[in-house]
Design brief:
The structure holds 2 protein chains of 2 kinds.
Chain A lengths: L6 E2 L4 E2 L1 H19 L36 H6 L1 H7 L7 H21 L1
Antiparallel strand pairs in A: 1-2
Chain B lengths: L1 H6 L1 H21 L2 H29 L2 E4 L20 E4 L1 H24 L6 H20 L3 H19 L7 H31 L4 H7 L4 H18 L7 H8 L2 H26 L7 H24 L4 H25 L4 H40 L15 H14 L6 H16 L1 H26 L15 H19 L1 H17 L1 H9 L3
Antiparallel strand pairs in B: 1-2
Classes of the chains: A mainly alpha, B mainly alpha.
Chain lengths: 113, 524
C-alpha cells in the first residue's frame, strides 16, 4: 500500500509518507536528546540573547529591514546586477524591442535549419 | 436535463463565466449582497463545469464539441472538405489546464468577495474577472486557431483592464497600458501567423492544419510568429519585463489569476510545438528544444536573482513567477530536444515533460496562494514595502501559516507539491545535462532564501506600533487561501495518484500528435 503511493522519477523514487515517518522519527530522537538537557537552563540570564555584549533592546525598539538581508550576496554579484537591473527600464518600447529581438534571432535560426 | 448538460459541457464551460460577467452589472443594481451571491454562484458553476468536463475527459477520453452542429462528423467527409465550424477539442492536456483554471478561479473569486469589498466599481471588476476566466478557459479548450486568437484577445483585454483597476495614482494604469501594448503586439503576431497558415492550407482547425502542414518557409515564419509572443506572454526571459510591472500593480486576486493566464499561453506554446508542428520539427527538434531550455534557464536564474533584491513583496513574487516559468520551459525543452530519440524520450524525456506539466499545476496553486497572502497583508497594512512590514505573525496567524505553506512549496521543500514536480525535473534534466540540473537546484535554494527574507520581513519580530490595529483578514479571504493551501498539501502528500491520473495522461496526449488529429479527422 505504501509503495503504491511512491512516485517514480526514472532515476529514483519519492514517497512523502515514508518521508513523514522518517521526519517524525528524527523529531522524536531530537526531543529525546533534548530531554537529557538541564531543566534550569531555561531560567534567568540564559534566556537572553548575546549581542556582542550590548544590552538587548526593548520589544519593538529595533527593526531589521528586509533590504539589509543578503547584502553580501548582492554585493558579490554587483557586476551582474549592474548589467541586469538597468535592463528593467520600465519603458514599454524597450520591452517590445526585446520581443522583436528574440523574434529576429529565432527567424535566423529557424530559416537557417 | 443532466445528460443535456453533460453533452454540452464544453459550451457551458465558456457560457457560464460569460453569462456571469454580463449579468454582474444588472445584479449590482440590486445591491452588493445580490452581486456577491451572483458572483459566488458563477464561480461555483464555472468550477463545477470545469471539474465535470475534466473528469469526463480523464475518465473516457478526448471530448470534441462543434458549435452549431450536433457532432463534428457533420463538418467533415462528403459534406465539407475541411472543418468549417468552431470546434473544441478537449484532451487530457486541455483537461489538466481546465482543472488549474477552474480551481484557481473558484478560490480567487471567493477571496475577492472580501478583498475587493471596500473598492468601488465592482460591477466592472467582476465582469472583467469573469471575462478573463472565460478567455483563459477558451484558450485551453479550443481546437480552432482563430478561435484561440479571439480568446487570447479576450483574456488580454480583460487582464489589462484589471491590472489598471486600482489606478493607484497612475502606476496601475501605466502597468495596464504596458500589459495591453505587449499583449496587442503579441496577438497581432499570432494573428499574422494564423493568416499565413490559413492562406496556405484553407483551414483554421488545429487538427486539420496539423495534418496538412509541410514545414515550408512560410510555415517556419508562422512558427516563430506564434512561439515568440506566446513565450513572451508566459513571462520568459528576456521578454518578461512586463511581468513585475503588471503583477505588482494589479489587485492580488487578479494577479493570482494572471499567473494562470500566463500558463495558458505556455499551454498554447507547447500545443503549437508538440501538436501543430510536432514531428515536422524533426530537423529542428534540438534547435527548438534548446530554444526552450535556454529561455528556461535564463528565466529561472534571472527571475530568482532579481527577486532577491526586491522590496515590494508583490514585485518580488512576480519575479519568482518568471523563475518558476523557467522550470516548466526547462522540462518541456528537454523533452522536445530528445523527441527524435525514442530511447532518450522513454528514459527521461517523458519524465521531464511530466515534471513541466506537473509544475504548471503546482505553480498555479502555490503562486496563487502566495499572491493571495501578499494581498491579505496589503489589505490590513496598506503597504507592500517589506522594509516597513514586520511582526504580523502575532496578529495574522492564519495568513502566516498559508504563506509558509506556499513559500515552502515554491522552494521545493518536501513534502509540499513543489518538491514532487521539481524532483521530476531535476532527475530527468540531469540525464541530458548535469549542469542544467544543478543550476535548477541552485535556483531553488535562492528561492528559499528569498522567501525566508519575506517571511522574516512580514511576520517575524515584535508587533510594530503602526500595525497595532492589524488583525486577521475576513473569512472569505481565508477560505480562498485555504482552498489553495489544502491542494498544495494534498498533492504534496499524494503525488503518485495525481501523477498517474492527471499528469501522465496529459503527457501522452501532448506527445500523441496523430491521436489528436485522428480525434477530429478520423484515423488519418
Amino acid at each position: 500500500m505504501t509503495f503504491a503511493w511512491t512516485l517514480e522519477t526514472g532515476s529514483g523514487t519519492w514517497n512523502p509518507l515514508l518521508w513523514l515517518v522518517a521526519f517524525g522519527v528524527a523529531v522524536g530522537i531530537g526531543l529525546y536528546i533534548r530531554s537529557f538537557g538541564r531543566a534550569d537552563n531555561r531560567e534567568g540570564d540564559a534566556l537572553k540573547p548575546f549581542i556582542s555584549g550590548n544590552e538587548e533592546p526593548e520589544d519593538g525598539a529595533s527593526h531589521l529591514p528586509a533590504s539589509n538581508l543578503y547584502w553580501g550576496f548582492t554585493d558579490a554579484l554587483k557586476a551582474y546586477y549592474q548589467k541586469v537591473v538597468p535592463l528593467h527600464s520600465g519603458i514599454p518600447t524597450d520591452y517590445v524591442a526585446w520581443m522583436l529581438g528574440v523574434m529576429a534571432v529565432m527567424f535566423i535560426i529557424v530559416l537557417a535549419t | 436535463m443532466f445528460s443535456f448538460c453533460i453533452r454540452h459541457l464544453p459550451a457551458l464551460l465558456i457560457a457560464a463565466p460569460l453569462f456571469t460577467a454580463f449579468v454582474v452589472p444588472l445584479a449590482g443594481r440590486l445591491g452588493s449582497r445580490v452581486r456577491a451571491a451572483w458572483v459566488a454562484l458563477g464561480a461555483f458553476a464555472t468550477a463545477g463545469i470545469g471539474f465535470a468536463l475534466a473528469a469526463k475527459v480523464l475518465g473516457s477520453g478526448p471530448v470534441t464539441y462543434v458549435f452549431g452542429a450536433l457532432d463534428h462528423a457533420q463538418t467533415l467527409g462528403a459534406a465539407a472538405a475541411f472543418p468549417i465550424r468552431i470546434m473544441f477539442e478537449v484532451d487530457a492536456f486541455s483537461a489538466l489546464m481546465i482543472l488549474i483554471s477552474s480551481l484557481s478561479s473558484l478560490a480567487i473569486t471567493i477571496y475577492s468577495l472580501a478583498a475587493e469589498s471596500r473598492q468601488s466599481g465592482l460591477d466592472i471588476f467582476y465582469a472583467m474577472l469573469f471575462l478573463l476566466v472565460a478567455g483563459v478557459l477558451g484558450m485551453v479548450a479550443t481546437g480552432d486557431l482563430f478561435n484561440f486568437f479571439v480568446f487570447l484577445e479576450i483574456s488580454s483585454l480583460a487582464g489589462a483592464a484589471l491590472v489598471a483597476y486600482r489606478i493607484d495614482e497612475g502606476v496601475a494604469v501605466e502597468a495596464g497600458l504596458k500589459y495591453a501594448l505587449l499583449s496587442t503586439i503579441g496577438a497581432l503576431s499570432v494573428l499574422i501567423a494564423i493568416g499565413i497558415l490559413f492562406a496556405q492550407y484553407n483551414a483554421l482547425n488545429l487538427a486539420a492544419v496539423a495534418s496538412r502542414l509541410q514545414f515550408g518557409t512560410l510555415d517556419k515564419i508562422a512558427l516563430v510568429l506564434l512561439a515568440v509572443p506566446l513565450a513572451m506572454k508566459a513571462g520568459a526571459v528576456p521578454m518578461h519585463f512586463w511581468t513585475p510591472d503588471s503583477y505588482a500593480a494589479a489587485p492580488s486576486s487578479v494577479t493570482a489569476f494572471l499567473v494562470v493566464s500566463s500558463q495558458a499561453s505556455l499551454y498554447a506554446l507547447f500545443r503549437i510545438l508538440y501538436t501543430l508542428y510536432g514531428h515536422l520539427l524533426q530537423f529542428s527538434w534540438v534547435t527548438f528544444g534548446w530554444f526552450l531550455i535556454i529561455l528556461g534557464v535564463l528565466s529561472a536564474f534571472v527571475g530568482v536573482t532579481m527577486a532577491l533584491t526586491q522590496k515590494d513583496v508583490k514585485r518580488l513574487m512576480a519575479y519568482h513567477s518568471v523563475s518558476q516559468t523557467g522550470y516548466m520551459l526547462l522540462g518541456a525543452g528537454v523533452a522536445l530536444a530528445v523527441l527524435g530519440n525514442a530511447e532518450a524520450l522513454a528514459a527521461f524525456g517523458k519524465t521531464a515533460l511530466a515534471g513541466a506539466l506537473f509544475h504548471m499545476f503546482n505553480n498555479a496553486l502555490y503562486k496563487g496562494l502566495l499572491f493571495l497572502t501578499a494581498g491579505a497583508v496589503f489589505y490590513r497594512t496598506g503597504t507592500r514595502n517589506l522594509d516597513r512590514l514586520g511582526g504580523l505573525g502575532h496578529t495574522m496567524p492564519w495568513t502566516m501559516a498559508f504563506f509558509m505553506i506556499g513559500a515552502l512549496a515554491i522552494a521545493g521543500i518536501p513534502p509540499f507539491n513543489g518538491f514532487a514536480s521539481k524532483l521530476l525535473i531535476y532527475e530527468s534534466v540531469y540525464r541530458l545535462s548535469p549542469f542544467l540540473s544543478i543550476l535548477a537546484m541552485v535556483v531553488s535554494i535562492l528561492t528559499l532564501a528569498s522567501f525566508v527574507k519575506v517571511f522574516h520581513a512580514m511576520f517575524l519580530g515584535p508587533p510594530r506600533a503602526e500595525y497595532a490595529e492589524a488583525r486577521e483578514v475576513p473569512r472569505p479571504m481565508l477560505a480562498g487561501m485555504a482552498i489553495l493551501a489544502a491542494f498544495v498539501v494534498l498533492i504534496g502528500l499524494l503525488p503518485r495518484p495525481f501523477n498517474d491520473h492527471m499528469i501522465a495522461p496529459a503527457v501522452e496526449a501532448l506527445l500523441d500528435r496523430v491521436g489528436y488529429i485522428a480525434t477530429i479527422l478520423g484515423g488519418s
